[in-house]
């Protein structure tokens, strides 16, 4: 395993982290007696495998259902100082509730402390206010740190780059969990801001949210050859020293194997990546047109400024991925979260275009005349059954 300094925490963080939202039994709390023995056995084997290969960062959240409770049956068996344990608790209006929720996490994990506590989902102005206002959740987290129950405090986010940078610039957090990978590089400015504040940088779900790369379309497989799309994406992310660790949402012990192939390639990333990156760009230009590829998101309105709160930017992005790389299954999954994802995936689908006049909000876009047609095309291609966030399913 390779390790990187996790910003001001000074922790030696493995470049892969064992994310805890894929192997648990349920997305809701259940009595211990209801957890099937085979599910618990698989979870424990997954953690054992992680530690065997040097992945000593175990990451979970109060919002991951039975994950913490199930981890509590295996984590206390390890030498505590050799583990880096992270859990996450969502910021709420009542900071006392935040503390109670964290205390429940600690009881489930059967640990005296966690190394990393993330405020889970600082995604908009409201959740940021719940976090940083006087008497808010961040103050509670700091109290927990002074009590020895937390070593370092960070935040996770699915918010806009602007919100993430604003949160980072408070200089109140030791690390950030955010999205950034090949198909979605919008948050690079946030990574640079985190670097300026010497914060740890943890990438959320690069294999799932980065394109469902555990089940990639054949077209993407060919474009990424000789690497698998998963290894390509890992190498792309880790070739940037400002990125410290990637979360692997492993469901079983064997899921680490493909990712581990990345480690021997890192020293040669500067020669391995350019031909693949060139092919991916060439294919996007061939299928979408160079002008569109280079300017499609110029001067697009935010979803809050769009009639019907249509999330134009996300919808066009998903359409681009579906056309250029056959990421239709991925696009369908993400598209149908719109309207169902609250502040985790905000804005709406393009299902009411006949009722909306988008001309004014698109006035500054160089593609104002084409975009309504493309939105309609995206809806036709990607609409399917409504999808709920995993924690609500």
TrEMBL record:
Domain NADP-dependent oxidoreductase per the UniProt entry, residue ranges: 40-159
Gene Ontology molecular function: any one: oxidoreductase activity
Annotated TM spans: none
Pfam families reported in the protein's UniProt record: Aldo_ket_red (PF00248)
InterPro entries in the record: AKR, AKR2_Oxidoreductase, NAD(P)_OxRdtase_dom_sf, NADP_OxRdtase_dom
Protein name (database record): Aldo/keto reductase
Organism whose genome encodes this protein: Amazonocrinis nigriterrae CENA67
Lineage: Bacteria, Bacillati, Cyanobacteriota, Cyanophyceae, Nostocales
């Amino acid at each position: 395993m390779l390790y990187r300094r996790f910003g001001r925490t000074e922790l030696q963080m493995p470049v892969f982290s064992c994310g805890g939202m894929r192997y648990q039994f349920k997305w809701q709390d259940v009595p211990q007696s209801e957890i099937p023995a085979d599910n618990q056995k698989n979870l424990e084997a997954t953690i054992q495998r992680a530690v065997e290969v040097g992945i000593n960062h175990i990451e979970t959240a109060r919002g991951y259902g039975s994950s913490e409770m199930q981890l509590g049956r295996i984590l206390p068996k390890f030498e505590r100082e050799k583990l880096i344990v992270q859990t996450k608790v969502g910021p709420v209006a009542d900071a006392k509730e935040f503390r109670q929720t964290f205390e429940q996490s600690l009881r489930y994990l059967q640990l005296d402390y966690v190394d990393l506590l993330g405020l889970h989902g600082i995604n908009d102005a409201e959740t940021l206010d719940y976090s940083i206002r006087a008497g808010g959740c961040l103050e509670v987290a700091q109290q927990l740190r002074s009590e020895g129950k937390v070593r370092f405090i960070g935040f996770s986010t699915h918010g806009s780059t602007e919100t993430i940078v604003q949160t980072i610039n408070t200089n109140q957090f030791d690390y950030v969990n955010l999205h950034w990978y090949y198909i979605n590089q919008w948050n690079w400015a946030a990574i640079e801001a985190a670097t300026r504040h010497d914060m740890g940088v943890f990438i959320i779900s690069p294999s799932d949210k980065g394109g469902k790369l555990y089940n990639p379309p054949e077209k993407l497989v060919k474009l990424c050859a000789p690497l698998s799309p998963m290894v390509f994406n890992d190498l792309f992310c880790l070739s940037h020293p400002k990125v410290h660790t990637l979360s692997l949402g492993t469901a079983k012990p064997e899921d680490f194997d493909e990712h581990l192939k990345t480690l021997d390639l890192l020293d040669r990333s500067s020669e391995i990546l350019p031909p693949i990156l060139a092919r991916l760009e060439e294919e996007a230009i061939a299928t979408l047109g160079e002008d569109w590829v280079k300017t499609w998101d110029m001067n697009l309105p935010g979803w809050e400024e769009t009639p019907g709160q249509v999330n134009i930017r996300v919808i066009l992005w998903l359409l681009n991925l579906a056309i250029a790389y056959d990421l239709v299954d991925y696009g369908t999954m993400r598209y149908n979260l719109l309207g169902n994802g609250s502040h985790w995936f905000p804005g709406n689908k393009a299902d009411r275009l006949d009722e909306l006049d988008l001309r004014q909000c698109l006035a500054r876009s160089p593609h104002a005349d084409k975009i309504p047609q493309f939105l309609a095309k995206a809806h036709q291609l990607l609409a399917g059954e409504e999808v709920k966030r995993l924690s609500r399913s």
